[in-house]
Amino acid sequence: MKISNSMRALNGSNIMVSSMAWGMWRFAGQSLAGAHELVETALETGIKFFDTADIYGLDGPRFGAAEELLGAVFSQKPELRDQIVLASKGGIMPPVPYDSSSRYLEKAIDDSLRRLRTDRIDLWQVHRPDILTHPADLAATLDKAVASGKVRAVGVSNFTPVQIDALRIYLNAPLASTQPEFSPFHLKPIEDGQLDQAMQHQLTVMAWSPLGGGRISSPDSERGNAAVEALRQVADAQGVSIAAAAYSWIMAHPARPIPIIGSQNVERIRDAGTAYQVTWTREDWYKVLVARRGESLP
Ligand code: NAP
């Protein structure tokens, strides 16, 4: 299986995104010069899809800090904004913890636009499902956001397949994307039908923590170790890093998940571009899956 690096449209839109995204969960706290370097490195690597959230920065220095820093980068170099498909998220507000009421989300989107110093967010995602909001009400809020032009497309993150179905029933705008955790260290979207559902409805899949949030360098379980070893076999044979093997393993799934590269290190971001060199045989791909499962398939 060859990995395609071609751009593709976000579901239901003409917004063209790259096969990898770059994430800003760990972005806040950088200097402005460092932030510029990271953004430009991602772009030079062919990554034109950026994922942030209003809450990124909460663990230091503050809620909104990652969006503010990207806004400062845009302010210094406005031409960068048009080179990026910008995704953000909202709906988590500690200690509540989740709020998808229209009043809260409308303000959250306005606040994100202000911090990002932009007039539109290309993909706006509900960060986590709010159990206390009816999907019909959430759909109405999302449709209104699209109609206002403040967001161009809408998606969800950490929703179950049933929660996605419930929202889709009420939403007039196409649901563009889903963002589950997915990697050789977290297989749930394969097991719970989420990737099958994405293929059924052509949802764009964004895979968060594609290296298990760094567990690739320090696995915390025997199954994690086994997955790294299975990735290493392929990486060594094809002359790429284990991280590149992991990104390509994710992209080899037929739902064409887009790994969100989380590294804030220039060399490692560049290295992600080598993931397209990897060719997976069916046997090697399944070996990684089975290693992580810790038991063979039936
Ligand atoms: P990740 O790529 O799984 O982990 C990145 C972390 O691993 C960085 O701290 C990185 O350190 C470290 N790392 C260790 N070894 C590495 C190696 N060999 N190569 C590259 N990095 C290595 O991704 P993540 O940061 O956890 O998540 C990625 C993105 O997913 C986030 O930025 C965010 O956009 C999104 N996300 C979404 C949710 C959600 O609920 N929707 C949750 C979490 C994350 P260095 O920086 O030093 O390279």
General description of the model:
- This protein has 298 residues and is of the alpha/beta class.
- The protein has a single domain (8-216, 249-276), classed as NADP-dependent oxidoreductase domain (TIM Barrel), CATH 3.20.20.100.
- It has 11 helices and 10 strands.
- The strands form 2 sheets. It has an 8-stranded parallel β-barrel with strand order 3-4-5-6-7-8-9-10, surrounded by 4 helices.
- Helix 1 links the parallel strand 3 and strand 4.
- Helix 1 (32-44) crosses helix 2 and helix 3 packs parallel to helix 4 (135-148).
- The radius of gyration is 19 Å and the shape is globular.
- It binds NADP nicotinamide-adenine-dinucleotide phosphate (NAP).
Topology:
Blueprint: E1 8-9, E2 16-17, E3 21-23, H1 32-44, E4 49-51, H2 65-76, E5 85-90, H3 102-116, E6 121-126, H4 135-148, E7 151-157, H5 161-170, E8 175-179, H6 188-191, H7 194-201, E9 204-207, H8 222-238, H9 242-251, E10 258-261, H10 266-272, H11 282-293
Parallel strand pairs: 3-4, 3-10, 4-5, 5-6, 6-7, 7-8, 8-9, 9-10
Antiparallel strand pairs: 1-2
Helix pairs in contact: 1-2, 2-3, 3-4, 4-5, 8-9, 8-11
The protein binds NADP nicotinamide-adenine-dinucleotide phosphate.
